[in-house]
Amino acid sequence: MSGLISVDEALALLAKNALSLQAETVALDNALGTRLAAPVMARVSRPPASVSAMDGYAVRLADVRTVGARLRVTGDAPAGRPFKGAVGKGEAVRIFTGSVIPDGADHVVIQEDADRDNDALVCRDAYSSTEHVRKTGIDFAEGDELLAEGEFVTAAALSVAAAGNHGKLDIYRRPRVGILANGDELRAPGSALAPGQIVNSNPAGLGALIRQWGGEPVDLGVAQDTLMAIRERIDAASDIDIFLPIGGASVGDHDLMRPAFAGAGFTPVFEKIAVKPGKPTWFSTRDGQRVVGLPGNPASAFVCAHLFLKPLLTGAGQHALIKARTVSPLPAPGRRETYLRATVQVSPDGMLQVKAAPNQDSSLIRPFLLSNALIRRPAEASSVAAGELVDILPIGPLVPGLV
Ligand SMILES: Nc1nc2c(c(=O)[nH]1)N[C@H]1C(S)=C(S)[C@@H](COP(=O)(O)OP(=O)(O)OC[C@H]3O[C@@H](n4cnc5c(N)ncnc54)[C@H](O)[C@@H]3O)O[C@H]1N2
Ligand code: MOO
């Protein structure tokens, strides 16, 4: 298949060609940023029994409906050692935050609201309904599905799984993403540069994004501008799940990535996208392996990694867009769906406002530093005036200090 397709069509084709990875069992410590291969069911209820929310005394509500109620303290229920007996009429048991509420009790009087004299307790307040008791299973009940198959494992998901009494998780193994730069002019960061040479800067940032999205970046180095040099790198990397060739994607005499992968048996799924930046982004498959070909221009590579590589790694479908007010007017985008690097902030009146970087040239790297969102302008849309709402795709946290 060839020709220009829309962003939505590209996303649908990526979803249709989702990775199929083996499942493995790992300790919780190693599961962050992976995807679950099986649902996580609660092995316990949380809390496992009704517990006290405060330090004080477990009593029967019926005994403390009037001010000055006098009770007899019959024992202690420290957290982890439930009281063996029951709380009878006119009785109280010393209790602590997290302790199991003893049988018979249905209310906790906090210690600040009662006077203790040896085994006597006098309440300074009257109560009409149960207070400070956390009922069994209010967080979740044994057998509940806590996390679904395919879910991305976040910090919160790890705590939930641990609380559900799981020390290990069944996850899909992290996809290995082989970053293959291409260009006779490219040299490693920190090299002495001859005239015409430039730094191979794209893999550093892309590798970090891949890690953030649950993949394992693999540096396949820089292939020189010959079909044979590229092919050698492809053939030497048989354990790669997603090849990420950078550059050599366009129509120039030295743009050899597509033919090199085609020669290695990869079948094109799409060859370019009506998107700006990043029109030459392409996608091919060979059995279980995928190729997401990114343009070499740094902005194109970075933006298209967010748009097309992230969904393949995280399993997310459509992009989740939100609205923000643009602080500057935006021109009509033309025939390609356009993504502008931008800074989203919270304005003094508490609304999201977004500022497009003034220069959107696809060769620029520095604007990444301030970009925590991409403004999406649909193909053929009209220009917008300052103050109008536009769609944004968040790609980073809100800029600190502006909330
Ligand atoms: N006649 C046409 N020319 C171009 C078209 C077109 O449709 N017709 N498309 C343009 C668009 S859009 C883009 S985007 C670029 C894509 O070019 P390539 O993917 O082939 O990338 P290269 O030519 O290899 O490099 C472009 C640019 O990026 C620099 N680069 C490459 N790799 C890296 C790297 N790893 N780290 C940092 N910088 C890198 C490279 O030096 C070039 O300056 O094509 C347009 N041309
Ligand atoms: O659309 Mo190309 O990605 O930079 O200019």
Automatic annotation (TrEMBL):
It holds the Pfam family MoeA_C. The keyword Aminoacyl-tRNA synthetase does not apply. GO terms for biological process: Mo-molybdopterin cofactor biosynthetic process. One of its GO terms (cellular component) is cytosol. Residues 178-315 form the MoaB/Mog domain. It catalyses: adenylyl-molybdopterin + molybdate = Mo-molybdopterin + AMP + H(+). Signal peptide: none annotated. The keyword Transmembrane helix does not apply. Catalyzes the insertion of molybdate into adenylated molybdopterin with the concomitant release of AMP. This is Molybdopterin molybdenumtransferase.
